[in-house]
Amino acid sequence: MLMTGFAGFLGLLKIVLMALAAFGLFDAAFRREDAFRAADKQSKVFWLVILGIALVVSYLFHFLSFLPIIGAIASIVYIVDVRPAVKQVSGGGGGGRRGSSSDGPYGPYNGGR
User: Fold this and answer.
1) Residue 42 and residue 2: Cα distance in Å, rounded?
2) pTM score, two decimals?
3) Phi/psi of residue 104, each to 5°?
4) Most buried of 30, 36, 69, 94 (most Cβ within 10 A)?
5) Burial class (CB in 10 A: 0-12, 13-18, 19+), 56
6) Tens digits of residue pLDDT in 13-60
């Protein structure tokens, strides 16, 4: 009975890691190439290959082996480090705030007029 619960937990963990890699892969696929260079991160193709391999490895191998753990680390690095930097460079990281580039912390700046 304990082994059945443990196998269910590992199956759920495998699905979560596959979802993490798939999210990173699709997010990287829809980002602009120049945003990766402007954020001083690896290229878009590099991240697409790494995240694609992470997705395939997490599907094919058991979680307790070495390769899915490396894939999970790569997915987490993309989501935590690369994605916010690329999003900020490409203009997607405004925190839900819409405005022009001349807006200050308390509203639009009109040059004292």
Assistant:
1) 43
2) 0.71
3) -95, -170
4) 36
5) middle
6) 888 889 999 999 999 999 988 888 888 888 899 999 999 999 999 888
